[in-house]
Amino acid sequence: MSGLTVVNGLGRYPRTRPRRLRGAEWSRKLVAETHLSTSDLVWPVFILDGEGQREQVASMPGVERLSIDLLVEAVGEAAALGIRSVALFPKTDPSLKTSDGREATNPDNLMCRATRALKAAHPEVGLFCDVALDPYNCDGHDGIVKDGRILNDETVAVLLKQSLVQAAAGADVIAPSDMMDGRIGSIRDALDGAGFEHVQIMSYAAKYASAFYGPFRDAVGSGGALKGDKKTYQMDPANTDESLREVAMDLDEGADMVMVKPGMPYLDIVRRVKETFAVPTLVYQVSGEYAMMKAAADNGWLDNDAAVLESLLAFKRAGACGIFTYAAVEAARLMRGC
Fold this sequence. Notes:
37% of the residues lie in helices and 18% in strands. The protein has 338 residues and is of the alpha/beta class.
C-alpha cells in the first residue's frame, strides 16, 4: 500500500491513473458520461412568402430564410441526416403587421401554410410551431401593447386562437415563447376543448430578457419595429429561483416540456430545472450564441467543427434532452462524418 491513499473510495496516483481511460478513442467513447445524437437536435428554420425564394440572414452566417417549397426540400434533406424535429419562425410581410397581431390567428397565414406543406411531405418529422405575437405585431413585442404596457390577459386571448389554427394545420408541438402569465393553462384548455388533446405544449418557461437575441429579431423582421425592451415579461438574467417558479407554474398548467433560453450563458438554469423537476427540458442555442461562434470561426479564432459539437455536448451534459440550434444540419453532418 506504499504511496497509495484513498479518498472517498477512490485511489490516488500512482496506482490510480485517470489518463489510462483517456489513452485511446475507443476507451474514451466507452466511458463517456454524455452522448450527443442527431435525435437530440431541433432545427429552427425561418420562412418567408413566395416560391423559390431564399434570403441570407446577414447577422447569422449560413442561415437562410426559405420559401415553403424550398423549406419542404430542406427539411427532407435534414431528415435524411437524422434530424427528427424542426421549429418554424415566420418573417411576416410588414403590411400584415397590426397592433393587435391579428395575422397570427389567420388559418391561412404563412406559418399555417408552411405547417400543412411540411406535414404532408414529411409526416414523420416533429413540428414545433412558435406561439407569440412579435412576428405579427407592428410594435415588435410578443404581446399586445397599450399605452406602452404589454397587456397580459388580452394577449393570452389571442395566443390561444393562434395555437388553435396551428394545431388545425398539423402542428405536433405548440411552443409559446411569449412569457405571458397563465398562457399555458389557457392554451391547454383551448386545445383539449377543440379535440387537440394529442398536441403537445413546450413552454418557453425560463426565457430571459437577453442581449443574445438580436440576430433572431433581424431574421423575423421584428428588431427594427421593437419599441422599448421586453424586460417586463421576459426574465431578469440576475435570477435563478424565479425560473423554478415559472417552470413549476407551467408544468402545473399542463406543459409537456419546458425550455430554457438562451443556452450557454444559462447552463446553471438548465441543470437546476432538470434536477428539480426531472421533466423533459430543452435548451435554445440562440442566434447571438450561434453568430458569435461563427464570427470567431470565420476569423480563425475557433475550430468551427470542434466548437459546434462541444457547445452542443455542453447542453446535454447540463441536463437538456433536446437542443434548438441553427447548426443542427451542420452538426448532423459532422456526427455522421459527411
